[in-house]
Amino acid sequence: MEQKRFFLSENEIPTQWYNIQADMPNKPMPLKNPVTKEDMKPEDLYPIFCEECSRQELNQTDSWIDIPEKVRQMYTYYRSTPLVRAYGLEKALGTPAHIYFKNESVSPVGSHKLNSALAQAYYCKQEGVTNVTTETGAGQWGTALSYAAKVFGLEAAVYQVKISYEQKPYRRNMMQVFGAQVTASPSMSTRAGKDILTKYPNHQGSLGTAISEAVELARMTPNCKYTLGSVLSHVSLHQTIIGLEAEKQMAMAGEYPDEIIACFGGGSNFAGLAFPFMRHAISGEHKGTRFIAVEPASCPKLTKGKFMYDYGDEAGYTPLMPMFSLGHNFAPANIHAGGLRYHGAGVIVSQLLKDGLMEAMDVDQIETFQAGMLFAQSEGIVPAPESCHAIAATIRRALECKESGESKVLLFNLTGHGLMDMAAYNQYLSGNLTNYAMSDEEVEKNLANFSL
Ligand SMILES: *Cc1c(COP(=O)(O)O)cnc(C)c1O
């Protein structure tokens, strides 16, 4: 029997994160102040984010950044996460490809989001912050931050998009179990929320409105900082623990991935798995590795969006970011992969895509659930709807290998389990799930209405 799972011992867990910004052939273009349009410096981010995260955000010189000992200690509660050879899936597909996945679903909160939540909460505590705010859509990030805040003795206030607050009460309960205060957004507790509710009393909420509320609360409250679970460069930095571990674990398996595949919301799990391997592609040590980001056909910012300066939120409170975007007022269809319903991509990934160092593809919702079903039946793990996108893409590639007879090594990121998303599987099983692909015309129309 060949080895199926690969683990690192505690002292092999990386002690530094990898900052790809330092090694990129073309650095990301600067963030711009939303009001003055001037280039942002770290100090300009301090009113919203903690100082260390602000510095990490714009750090384009240090390839390696130390993981604080207390954060690394918390990592050891669930890391290393296993690297798994998916023999069951390979057999089900009859493919000669070797399929591996990095299982981030084993974190205490069920997803990769905790890797950055712990770091952000730790730095806030160090800097004398007492309260943190954030928004959450699907609920994964809110859950991770709520737990991380509890670990480091901070109060957490989470704005949960109203429709998800109502449709996913157990997610809300999970955040409350970890001691967070959870508010449905839009709410009457902020100026931004009141404005929206005055205009649209039945507004169901969106990530854009929830971000505006959380940022406003952080700005108005002393010793309170805002935190974000994706998109930003410091979040991607923290997630590189995934790929740095995977690199060592692939070596234990005696292989090197030909293709690295990850689902794409704002880019943090893709960055986390891919960037440590991409450094070998940039240095020329490993040529020909393919890096594939997989997005929903209903929210195709990488495959159909435009590279431009855009805001991260609906109200325009965030810095302007140079990124692939569908426009900050884009309202994606209500697909189940809530973690992938974001209009823009991170600035690093956007630059890498522009420079041809990675590629992107999109998948329809029904294909993702078919992939999730096959994965569950062959590997025993019910995947999160977001993760199903990476699985669907991996299956496509594995079937191409079957056609051509190539035994490529495929590595994908299993970002989370789907045990809190069974309502989505229920809809799939009862045949009520639909596809919402966006046509080029719809994308064009949305971008044509676009103004800053
Ligand atoms: C948030 C989330 C994603 C997408 O976010 P990225 O920042 O693109 O990684 C993917 N999978 C799960 C389980 C998530 O919670």
Per the principal axes of the C-alpha atoms, what is the gross shape?
globular
- Lateral strand order in the biggest sheet: 1-4-5-15-10-11-14
Radius of gyration based on Cα positions: 20 Å
Instruction: Decide which structural class fits the backbone.
Output: alpha/beta
Q: What's the CATH class of the domain at 5-11 and 68-110 and 234-448, please?
A: Alpha Beta
The overall strand count is: 15
Mean pLDDT: 95
Architecture of the domain at 5-11 and 68-110 and 234-448, CATH level 2? 3-Layer(aba) Sandwich
CATH third-level topology of the domain at 5-11 and 68-110 and 234-448: Rossmann fold
Helix content percent band: 40-55%
Contiguous uncertain segments of 5+ residues: none
Topology summary:
Blueprint lengths: L4 E2 L9 E3 L23 H4 L5 H7 L6 E3 L2 H7 L7 E3 L1 H7 L4 E6 L10 H13 L4 E6 L3 H12 L3 E7 H6 L1 H9 L3 E5 L5 H9 L7 H14 L3 E3 L6 H7 L1 H13 L5 E5 L4 H16 L6 E7 L4 H4 L1 E5 L10 E5 L21 H8 L4 E5 L1 H15 L7 H18 L4 E6 L7 H8 L10 H9 L4
The protein binds pyridoxal-5'-phosphate (PLP).
Task: Explain this structure.
- With 452 residues, this protein is an alpha/beta fold.
- It has a domain at 5-11 and 68-110 and 234-448: Rossmann fold (3-Layer(aba) Sandwich), CATH 3.40.50.
- It has 19 helices and 15 strands.
- The strands form four sheets. A seven-stranded mixed β-sheet has the order 1-4-5-15-10-11-14, with helices on both faces. A four-stranded parallel β-sheet has the order 8-7-6-9, with helices on both faces. Strands 2-3 form a two-stranded antiparallel ribbon.
- α6 packs parallel to α8.
- The radius of gyration is 20 Å and the shape is globular.
- The relative contact order is 0.15.
- Pyridoxal-5'-phosphate is lined by residues 111, 113, 140-141, 230, 263-270, 339-340, 384, 386-387, 415-416.
